[in-house]
């Protein structure tokens, strides 16, 4: 089922069925993005739950000038970034990363160990890490990333450029330290 204007209006009125439908439509994506940021299933589930509470509590503030999905993702990203900035120890919560090989213009055909990728991502600043995850893993467009993070497309381009360089530099240091 697609997210319709009628569904959103019913949700804004407090309709629990509409809320449940929106949960079914959005929870998988929100969980996956959060999981890639925090690397622990239990924490990602908890943060996803928190995000949906925030969505419900703030349902009347949704303004139809943006897509509902974008508004939801923005709340999810802000909540996750705030959680990360509060100093949660990610290194003690490492889990398997979702991908085996990182591919982009700078890294084509480089085989990477899952743990090395995970450590590299965890060492990156959250603002750069989320841009890289949204673009390279979630395959979002620059426009979608701009809307989700509420930043300009120019800032998206700049962060992606810097994040790829940051990833490569951190990755190379990580690999050298392990040799």
Helix and strand sequence: HHHHHHHH
CATH topology of the largest domain: Arc Repressor Mutant, subunit A
| Form type | elongated
**Top CATH class of the largest domain:** Mainly Alpha
Proportion of beta-strand residues: under 5%
Work out the number of β strands: 0
Structural class: mainly alpha
**C-alpha termini separation:** 51 Å
For the residues shown, what is the average pLDDT?
80
Tally of distinct domains:
2
Helix content: 55-70%
By CATH, the superfamily of the largest domain comes out as Winged helix-like DNA-binding domain superfamily/Winged helix DNA-binding domain
Unreliable spans are 88-111
Gyration radius, to the nearest Å?
17 Å
Enumerate how many helices there are, as a single number: 8
Largest sheet: none
CATH architecture group name of the largest domain: Orthogonal Bundle
Short description:
With 179 residues, this protein is mainly α. Helices cover 68% and strands 0% of the residues.
Salient structural properties:
single chain; Arc Repressor Mutant, subunit A; 2 domains
Give a written overview of the molecule.
This protein has 179 residues and is mainly alpha-helical. The chain has two domains: 5-85, RNA polymerase sigma factor, region 2, helix turn helix motif (Rna Polymerase Sigma Factor, Chain: A, Orthogonal Bundle), CATH 1.10.1740; 97-178, Winged helix-like DNA-binding domain superfamily/Winged helix DNA-binding domain (Arc Repressor Mutant, subunit A, Orthogonal Bundle), CATH 1.10.10.10. The protein is built from eight helices and no strands. The chain has helices spanning 5-12, 16-38, 41-57, 68-85, 114-123, 126-137, 142-149, 153-178. Helix 1 packs across helix 2 and helix 3 (41-57) crosses helix 4 (68-85). The longest helix is centred in the last third of the chain and has 26 residues, at 153-178. Mean pLDDT is 80; it is low at 88-111.
